[in-house]
Protein: Oxygen tolerance
Amino acid sequence: MQSRLTYIIFLLISVISYGQVNLSVTSDKTTYTARDIINLTIVLEIEGSDYNSQQTKLRLPDFSKFNLIGTGSITNGFMDPETNTIISQSVTRLALEPKQKGKVKIGSFLITINNKIYKTEPFDILIKDVDKKASVAANSSKDVYLNMEVEDREVYQDEPTIAVLKVYSRNMDNLRKVKNIRLPKDNELDVYPVSFAKSEIDPSDFGNMSSQVLAIFLIFPNESGYVEVPGATASVNTFAGKNKIVSNKVKINVKKLPEDSPESFKNAVGNFKVSISNGSKEKAELKKPINVLVKVSGEGNLKSMVLPKLVESPDYEVFAPKITSKVKTETTGMKGEILANYLVIPKKSGEILIKTENFSFFDPSKKEYVDIGQEVLHINAFSHDQVMESRTTVEKVNEYTNTFLETVNTPVLKTTSFKVKEKSRLHWNVLFINIAILIALFIAYLIFKNWQKKRRLQKLNETVKPLGSVAETEKEIREQLKTDVNDYFSYLENLKDKEDFQKFFQTFDELDSEVRNQYFQSSMEDFARFLENYKGAAIAEEYRNLIQKIQIEKYAPVKSSEAMDMLLNSIVNLYSKISK
Structure:
């Protein structure tokens, strides 16, 4: 009998040691205010391999007194080296918002494993009322912080590295209050935004902290050595006002470029191509300007690199170029092209060679310099007599006609004025008929007004239209004042094709003024701040850049068709986004 009892005891001990289930629930605290978020952590630990395949889903208690605003779970598995037992751990987090104040009971969490029900013990929490709004506002601002993550902390000088700005908070509602994002600024760095679009909120990114991506941007270090990237800033809008928050600082190891650089190397880092072309459609004529385009395309530090210039020559005269760019900042780097529009005046007739400076760049992927030499453009310049002789008869007739219309004043046709002759005698019959017609019209007018008044009262009695809110009324007024920007786009394109640039910029000013009035903004600075608050920082920055391009192009001595095409495309893209 004693041997049997010993056998049963050892059997129970082996079963208990082979598998065991632990289910527990904890809250971050026991006392909350009405505005706090209740964070619950449910931990399920299973020792042994037999339980994993027979585990059921976790059943939640009655949450009718709460709003379930967030949930997340993670599962880990490992083996205990001392007992050689597999331990599986599942952690579930819940974020609850209380609906009532006072003492609230949280029931048991249940789970069934191997036909056995495991449950947690119920417990009470206390929900207190908010004493002061200011205290809540202060706590919410302290509970939010920024973190800047740099992907590659070891790069070459003028080579980009991607950075991500995240916001963290224990209360997910605080993430929606973060606005006015400002990227780092430093003389040794060039920072270009990639995206200001906020990502979806991750409820369990770091411990019990929720997170959200606020911005992605590129960093180009200008100096070698250890460079410290200053923190980015943002503001948290609370009841007490705006509170400024600052992210962490990051150090980057900027490697020096190799010393065996060619003489033509300036600061271009990446992978580029250079081309030169004649931008003028007409034949090159002696002592008359032509447009020469130098294009640098590829991927790298396009906005900060030194562009190759045209080599000076006694055969032609060169003026300072007008720089335009078609560059996009992406997570893989900066890509696009830079156009330098030179004004060149030939000094001799015949063949002229227009050359660019030698150009070379450093390719960080291959870790070597690439020298692509110089580009040459062949142009045949003609004298004025040669140009006139090469024209066809139709071209000459068109030129004479245009000259005649511009210089000769055409006569203006005048219309003759007619006078009604006065009659010598008065026709009484006509007078009486006119008086009768006037009386009849007056009576008809009174009848119509009386009918209109009765109809208006009848409509008011039948249906009484409810008054809308201030936001609805403002939206209705804005819809009535909404500008049809498509008509402006078509008109601007016609003016561009006709090369009536003065009227083109006047029409753009009218378009900008009407769109600003639509949103009740009088000045461009106020409108830019309005766009930043309601359309995003990227739209506001695009608006400021467009206004600057308009001013530069407006007073440029020579306007190329390519630059005007780019300007019109920018106007159409931006104002289409604003008018949505």
